[in-house]
Task: structure prediction
Amino acid sequence: MANTFRAFRNRNYTLFFCGQSVSQIGTWMQRTGASWVVYTITHSTFMLGLTVFASQFPSFIFSLLGGIVSDRYSRYKVLLVTQIASMIQAVLLAVLTLAGKYSVWEILTLSIILGIINAFDVPARQPLIHEMVTDKADLPNALALNSSMVNIARLVGPALSGIILVKFGAGNCFLLNGLSFIAVIISLLLMKLPVHIPSQVKKKMRHELSEGFTYLKNTPSISVIMLLLALTSLLVLPYNTLLPVFAKVIFKGDAATFGYINSFIGLGAVGGSVFLASLKSKTDLKIVLLANSALFGVCLLLFSHISYFPLAMLIATLTGFGMMSQTTICLTIIQVESDKEMRGRVMSYIAMAYFGMLPIGSLLVGAISQQIGTPNTILSQGIIALIIAVVFSNFLRKDKIGKKKRMSLQQTAEIEIE
Result:
């Protein structure tokens, strides 16, 4: 047990972990609540897709700027500002909802604001973990614990959200998320990090952007995996946009049903974290990546046309397992292969691949489901996931993934995109 949690020997990381654990649960509560409110008002799968688009596409637009800010300035101060801004956004959403006089467009506007905040939050948050760990031997363990924390929040948050939505309403769900940021803000204020030393070489922003793209172009160990992640985010991951339809129409349930679906997916994600951490150090991550990509696709195929709720939740758990394992391995390879001085910009490219493609995909999935129905849309996404696995198997066999063919699974970690 002492070895499993050895990263907690680092005071700064312990504070960060505790604060983020509370905040991440609140974030998943708000995500679940916002989707449910929009679908309850509109009964439109297109509007569900538009909601995800509004909350994440701004991150695509501003993520490169966020990466430059992360590399130029103190990541600690950047993260402190973004967490305060996120708390304000959540409180405004809660006040608007509790007042009872709100429209979908007002919710979408606040979602856009959150997307802009995340464009600066994501590139700063993950690299900051490297500064929190004084003993670098504890870094892989810290990253693994961080991954587990995110997935546990994905398990707990939607379940709590479903209960609160039914008993107390969406406004209180959003208010609790706003209050959850107090924990992470306090944890940041209690930290004692090394003084930030800005770079003595002043570069123009245009030069830094060009430098980042050149680095990505010349580092196929990152670019190939990032392309796989981008395609999956565009065409497959937006399946969760349609989950409210399954909860209300297919399973004839309520907000609690929606929360349970998300929680079973989160349960599978937690299982994926344990599975990856238990693999031997000589395990070829490329094989694991392809296997879980295929599992993800097969599970979507099965889930799409199952109306028996208990069986569907079993498939949902396996879906979360495959999805989490695939995404985490991609992010691990990208993070480990990136140079220290480029880490902020690399994180911004990941934000572009994820936050840029996912909202576009959500919008596309919402529109297509209006034409062919929700079950057939998810069926199509499962087929696409299998095609992606087959196509990229050829690229991954060509040893373009970098110098380390075999990577320790102790370095596996997931970046948290709200």
